[in-house]
Amino acid sequence: MTPVHFAFSTTFVLGLMGLTFHRSHLLSALLCLEGMMLSLYVALSLWTLQLNSINFSPTPMLMLAFSACEASAGLALLVATSRTHGTDRLQALNILQC
User: Fold this and answer.
1) Which positions, given as ranges, span the membrane (predicted)?
2) Is the domain defined by 3-92 classed in CATH 1.20.120.790?
3) Read out DSSP for 47-91?
4) Residue-wise pLDDT tens for the chain (98 aa)?
5) CA 34 to CA 78: how far, in whole Å?
6) Which residues of 59-91 are buried (b: 16+ CB within 10 A; e: fewer)?
7) Residue 68, CA atoms < 13 Å, CB-side half-sphere
8) Whether 22 contacts 28, CB under 8 Å
9) In 22-31, which positions are buried (b, 16+ CB within 10 angstroms) versus exposed (e)?
10) Exposed / middle / buried, residue 20 (Cβ in 10 Å: 0-12, 13-18, 19+)
11) Chain-centroid distance, C-alpha 65
12) How far apart are CA 37 and CA 4, in angstroms?
């Protein structure tokens, strides 16, 4: 494994560990998801450059577009949750209650 691949794998795993262990607030969970998506985007971009293939070139931009949609949906949920519950703490949310 090259140092570049190790760095992006470590970045993804750190984002996943942050999402797993430190999910007290919705905002911190969204930031961990964005960090994971950013590391995947950079790794996919480098993979496309290493392959020198024109067929895979739109893939990183498509993933970046999906990441932006995911971020906007997450922020909309954050605003809706903080308006209805008064906090973004995940322990205060009850999934069974509408």
Assistant:
1) 6-22, 29-49, 61-80
2) no
3) HHHHHT-STTTTHHHHHHHHHHHHHHHHHHHHHHHHHHHS--BGG
4) 788 889 888 999 999 999 888 878 888 889 999 999 999 999 888 888 888 887 888 888 999 999 999 999 999 988 988 888 888 887 777 665 65
5) 14
6) ebeeebeebeeeeeebeeebeebeeeeeebeee
7) 6
8) yes
9) eeeebeebbb
10) exposed
11) 12
12) 17
Rounded to 5 degrees, φ, ψ at 45 are: -65, -45
Tell me which residue has tokens 């998506």. 37
The position carrying tokens 């993979």 is 47
Contacting residues for 67 by C-beta, under 8 A, at least 6 apart = 34, 37, 38, 41
Residues 18/32, Cβ–Cβ less than 8 Å: yes
The CA-CA-CA angle for residues 21, 87, 30, to 5°, reads 45
